[in-house]
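G., the chain you wanted modeled:
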Amino acid sequence: MHVEVELKLELPLAALERLRRHPFVRTHKQGRAQSLHLYNTYYDTPDCDLARQKAALRLRRNGTQFFQTVKTKGDHQGAHFSRPEWEWPVAGDALDVSLLAETPLASLSAPVLAAVQPLFTTDFKRTVWLLSAPEETPSWQIELTIDQGEIRPHGTTSTDSEAICEVELELKHGSPRDLYHAALTLTEGLPVRICIHSKAERGYALARPRPSRAHKGSAPALKKNDTVAEALQSIGQACLGHALLNEPLLRRLRHPEAVHQMRVALRRFRSALSVFKPVLGSPHSLQVKEDLRWLAGELGDARDLDVFSDEILAPAVVALGDGIDLSPLRSLISHRRELAYQRALEALESPRSGQTLLHAAAWLENGDWLTPDSAEQQAILNGSLRPFARQLLDHRLKSVLRAGQHFGTLDSLARHAVRIEVKKLRYTCEFFSSLFSEKKQADFNATLSDLQEHLGAINDAAVARQKLSAIAQGGPAELTLACGAVIGWHQAHMEDTIKDCGKSWKQFQKQGPFWH
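Predicted structure as tokens:
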């Protein structure tokens, strides 16, 4: 078994040509490039039993040679991933299922293996360079691969295909930080995108399409003996992976939940940088946070107008019925929503977007924050995580309680400030959840979530009221009337929401911290 550690990138064709001639390649290449024409057939049962085992089985033809390969999903660590691979030369263009006894697929029954059949193919030209550090005994070696071709379901025409235009950097010797250094150098200024879906995953999506769903984030599995530095890397990689999983869905389908989840991922990442602020004071750290802020901001209008349309306008349309003509307002919001999605997609296609995420991944792996000038900061980074986590959670809880003093008398601006502090506390609880008893967390987190939901509803209504008032000013009479009707309907329901929020606050105050 071999374990791959690789970083996969997507680039437009013109950018690939620039990369081929890059000085970094000329300086570090060992010998001439190797060119191959690879034709791969991927196999599974009609019910995709192998995919359910998170494995891919392929037969590769390279000239007159054939190779059978099994790859498992492995572990994503932000942008790069590690995955086990088994490969054998075989005599011809037929599978040898007996070889699967050496792999996780050995657990499949004989009838299942007998049902395996071709599912999709990949056909591409591959160009490979071996890059090495200049020392006599190289500190790193990376295989740089450019693939151009197509993926298509087995037995279909090229019109059903999807293009392959990828760069892979596979670590042969060294550390992931060497991988990121090479990637950043090679793609500087280019419209690069990090790709965390393998060709096999893309092939399955073509051959066995399923309804597209956005991906929700999950808390990293931190260990009690982790250092603070290891925890920051794990949390950041989880946030980055969350964003990268939703980016293709947003780009391809303009999926409302995908824009929401990608924004949540970026916001969680920025929140993590705030949580670990005591050890993050370097200029590079600040730049990473600012770039993440920019990208989240470019997605912000699309998400805000989704919320406005679905949670402010839609219920008012149903409640008011034919009594008030809301069609002028609906048309205006629909037009603004379209423009907002265009802006979001233009941002994602820009060089800055891909560079932002790639720089963030590289910073997590080898940022200047890992070697601070301050001995005190270095001691914190190397120190035990649990005491650090408890201290941060205490600080976040005090900030919420301080902001919420005299909760019943707070105005909308002050309630918004409480909402921000509640959100920070909730993210911090999620980041460190694996360090503490799940049972002790349940009531605290449920109450915190309920409070955040009520505060969010109040804030959405306040923002909507400001937006509607601005739209009504100077607009035609029918638009002004529609705005006033929606404001009035929500205002009539807001008193009950504020009362429920007050109850949630009182319940929250009774909760003891689960981390002590």
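The chain is about 55% helix and 20% strand.

Shout if anything looks off.
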